[in-house]
């Protein structure tokens, strides 16, 4: 007869082996209390406007969410990314005699330690892009634990940007897509696809609005440096730096630093090479934009083509997939490969390819 009582082993807790025996691991986040105080200052009235109707979540609707906020954030701040000894995962899409079930997107998201990856500047943009793709279409496919992990990582990303002031534009785009998705899910879909109480999701939306406001008020610190600066470099070196940038917005941003950089950032050849790098010649013919002098305006063409076609993505480091072992992993972490020459089996995985790996 099965035992139906509470499991004495307390499933869900994490235990750490010490010299005195096993002890329960209870991490504490010093920022939790400050974060809760900030959230309490936010109005609990979230207005979500649609095309035909308007749903208003008032203070009365969020009363339960306010009571559960502290409990929810306590759970979220337990670093639920689940510490695994191996930072790799076997990708299997069907059951076999040896393996039952299949690997899900949420499981891979938990196992691959994205929380530590954001601390590596080579992987930061890669993780942010992956979170943005999940926010657009795959948020509801994550398990409850993976969703908590998702928002934990997002919280760490926002705090890193606020401290280091690194690439805030990328995070603003991510939060905008995520807030739009949550508005649609809460207003139009609701409990049918959202894991957990809908009031918890309203709290998460409020948190996103708080993050957006913080990034909006972010002031870039002026660095005082008595050494060599960009202005001291010769023109050919400044031009070489601009030609190595693969994002048009980065070129525009760098051109706002000094008048010299602005002059170099408006070079037609610079934008022509950028268009040729990202797009094919057939695409040029469909979106020709001429200047007043009758020349092709490559700068305007770049942004016009960007709206119609995807640009090539460049990342300092990405996940890799071993075709021999069917294992997804970070390259510097390695994996137990049985191939005679593992390097010939490796394939870099873009953020979109990572999503596609777990579509069934």
From TrEMBL:
Matching InterPro entries: F-box-like_dom_sf, F-box_dom, FBX25/32
Q: Does the keyword Nucleus apply?
A: yes
What is the protein name stated in its UniProt record? F-box only protein 25
Q: Which GO terms describe its cellular component?
A: cytoplasm; nucleus; SCF ubiquitin ligase complex
The F-box domain covers 227-274
Q: Which UniProt keywords apply?
A: Nucleus, Ubl conjugation pathway
Per the record, the major location class is nucleus
Q: Which organism is it from?
A: Asarcornis scutulata
- Output the Pfam families linked to this UniProt entry: F-box-like (PF12937)
């Amino acid at each position: 007869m099965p035992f139906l009582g509470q499991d004495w082993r307390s499933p869900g807790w994490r235990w750490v082996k010490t010299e005195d025996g096993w002890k329960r691991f209870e991490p504490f986040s010093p920022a939790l209390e400050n974060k809760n105080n900030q959230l309490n200052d936010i109005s609990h009235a979230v207005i979500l406007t649609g095309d035909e109707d308007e749903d208003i979540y008032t203070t009365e609707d969020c009363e339960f969410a306010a009571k559960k906020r502290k409990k929810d954030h306590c759970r979220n701040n337990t670093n639920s990314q689940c510490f695994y000894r191996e930072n790799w995962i076997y990708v299997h899409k069907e059951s076999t005699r040896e393996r039952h079930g299949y690997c899900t997107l949420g499981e891979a998201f938990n196992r691959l330690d994205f929380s530590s990856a954001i601390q590596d500047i080579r992987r930061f943009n890669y993780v942010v892009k992956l979170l943005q793709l999940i926010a657009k279409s795959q948020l509801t496919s994550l398990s409850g634990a993976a969703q908590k992990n998702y928002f934990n990582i997002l919280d760490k990303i926002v705090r890193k940007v606020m401290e280091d002031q690194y690439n805030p534009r990328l995070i603003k785009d991510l939060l905008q897509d995520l807030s739009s998705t949550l508005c649609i899910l809460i207003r139009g879909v609701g409990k049918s696809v959202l894991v957990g109480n809908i009031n918890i999701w309203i709290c998460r939306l409020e948190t996103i609005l708080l993050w957006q406001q913080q990034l909006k008020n972010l002031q870039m610190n002026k660095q005082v440096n008595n050494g060599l600066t960009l202005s001291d470099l010769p023109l050919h070196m400044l031009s070489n730096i601009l030609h190595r940038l693969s994002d048009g917005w980065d070129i525009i941003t760098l051109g706002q630093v000094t008048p010299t950089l602005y002059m170099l950032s408006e070079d037609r050849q610079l934008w022509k090479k950028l268009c040729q790098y990202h797009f094919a010649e057939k695409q040029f013919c469909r979106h020709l934009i001429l200047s007043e002098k009758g020349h092709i305006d490559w700068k305007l063409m770049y942004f016009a083509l960007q709206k119609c076609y995807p640009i090539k993505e460049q990342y300092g480091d990405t996940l890799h997939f071993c075709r021999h072992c069917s294992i997804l992993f970070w390259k510097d972490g390695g994996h137990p490969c049985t191939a005679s020459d593992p390097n010939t089996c490796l394939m870099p995985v873009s953020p979109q390819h990572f999503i596609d790996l777990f579509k069934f």
